[in-house]
Amino acid sequence: MSRSQITRGARMTQADVSAPTADGHRDDDGCPVLHVDMDAFYASCELRRRPELAGLPMIVGGDGSRGVVTAATYEARRYGIHSAMPMSRAKRLCPQVVVLAPDFALYTEVSAGVMAIFRDVTPVVEPLSLDEAFLDVSGAIRRLGPPAVIAEQIRDRVHDEQGITCSVGVASTKFVAKLASTRAKPDGLLVVPADRVVAFLHPLPVAQLWGVGEKTEEALARLGLRTVGDLAHTPVDTLVRALGPAAGAHLAELAWGRDPRRVVAPEREKSVSNEETFPRDVDDPEVVRRELLRLAEKVAARLRAAGYAGRTVGVKVRFADFTTITRSRTLASPTDVGQEIYTTARELYDALGLQRARLRLVGVKVEGLVGSDRLTRQLALDEPEVGWREAEQAVDRATARFGRGSVRPARLLSAGEGEGWGGAPVAPRPSADRRGGEA
DNA sequence: TCTGGGGTCCTTCAGCTC
DNA sequence: TCTGGAGCTGAAGGACCC
Length: 439
Fold this sequence. Notes:
Layout: H1 3-6, E1 33-38, H2 41-49, E2 58-61, E3 69-72, H3 74-77, H4 87-93, E4 98-100, H5 104-121, E5 125-129, E6 132-136, H6 141-144, H7 147-162, E7 166-171, H8 174-184, E8 189-191, H9 197-201, H10 214-222, H11 228-232, H12 236-243, H13 245-255, E9 271-282, H14 285-306, E10 308-319, E11 324-335, H15 338-351, E12 359-371, H16 388-402, H17 410-416
Parallel strand pairs: 2-4, 7-8
Antiparallel strand pairs: 1-6, 1-7, 2-3, 5-6, 9-12, 10-11, 10-12
Helix pairs in contact: 5-7, 12-13, 14-15
The chain binds a DNA duplex through helix 4, helix 10, helix 13, strand 9 and strand 11.
């Protein structure tokens, strides 16, 4: 028995999804864009594995002294808990909340199953993250039915095959479909007919628009603009002055439901980065350099695994007071070599001259990515033919065979086996192993 | 209250070339 | 030969998203 025969989501479509109206017009005519969003995805994956927790307030997130909530069940949200909230605060709001550490290998596996369902429906799938995607179903209508019917089929299949629920927005444009799926949550479906987009949008608060965060909302509030309708009736010049040319013009278009962006399969990534918040602030430059080495190795391994190399190496430093600075340098040629990334990152860090400033976080980033097949290597006269790149590829093979951390730079090995920073274990670090398939 | 981690995109500014 | 402006690129920071 499919889920649709058992129960339906609380918020259904605004019209019967399959029957045309008297004039032969169907509400989802001209609405080929679907936005599918899993409900409390990480938490739902955990409940699938541990059904005895169903109905309890539960959150997923880092349980360290500085962790934040990554996902919360709807029971937990009733206590005011939401994602990105510090764990300490979440526990104060709901002392009995069940806390689980994230298992990204599980979420990646469930996500792959869900995306396979989407691609079974249409080849035009644009994933936004592990738990949501846009689909253009115009090519599937003849085979599967109108968009709202396809949306119901997807919801049934996700439930039956993956054991989790999702919400779907159906609309003529991407951003309206996304708003619709949000309004349909949890476990619902909402169609916004093409001729009712403006009526749907204008009563909404501006903060619901995609791209309007805390700062933009404040800037709009200073102009007295609180709803999308207010925004729509404001001269574009005023918005451009307040928000800049790109954001101002973009929001003016969105406020009237105009969004020319098509659903497209994603291109290659543009950057790869890793960062780490120390359990306690660090003021020892040697500890920071060791962390930069670890992060550089990790970024390089991910680049090699994905078949990328990058030309620009950047470091990020966050001080104890949360101010953050970045420094970057573009190399003569792209690299996927950890030692080269580390050397550059270390030089950038040393050039800051921080002495014993207290640092909360450091990060390493590589951008300007190209396929590693386009990697050209010019050997210096005194450079051996077999160098760091070959050595690190050998490490990749050893890691694949014996597991992460089986081969490490000696500096990281000694750190892990004695003088860990701040008294915390250093290698292998729990957070380093949280996410599956990184290297 | 006290703020993770991995990304993308935009803006501003400075330096360089033509 | 010098100068100013346009256009490009790199660097840095910020806002936003999930």
